[in-house]
Amino acid sequence: MPKILIDPESTSLDHRFAIIKTKRTDRARYPEGCVTVVEDEATALAGADAERGLHPAIVYGPSSSSEGQRLYYLVRWLE
């Protein structure tokens, strides 16, 4: 995993529980369209479905990329 720079004064960036829709679990960041932020760890785990490419995780973001996309950085998988 790449080192993620955390901004302690940010009001929009934070660690969040999420479900990521992806076939590739080896990436460090995921576009906002692939990430569904959920309330808690139990909800993320309940939404997991590996056959459909849905993986529970903790992410950090959203952050804007240099290309103008909003991204979430993978902190760790919950599986």
Task: Write a compact overview of the structure shown.
8% of the residues lie in helices and 43% in strands. The chain has 1 helix and 5 strands, in the order βββαββ. A hairpin with a 5-residue loop joins β4 (54-64) and β5.
**Which structural class best describes the helix and strand composition?**
mainly beta
Topology pattern, helix = H, strand = E: EEEHEE
Q: What's the β-strand tally? A: 5
Low-pLDDT runs of 5+ residues are none
Helix content: under 10%
How many structurally independent domains?
1
Anisotropy-based shape: globular
Query: Helix count, per DSSP?
Result: 1
Largest sheet: 5 strands, antiparallel
Spatial sequence of strands, sheet with the most strands: 2-5-4-1-3
Mean pLDDT comes to 88
Residue fraction in strands: 35-45%
User: What is the CA-based Rg, rounded?
Assistant: 12 Å
Termini separation comes to 16 Å
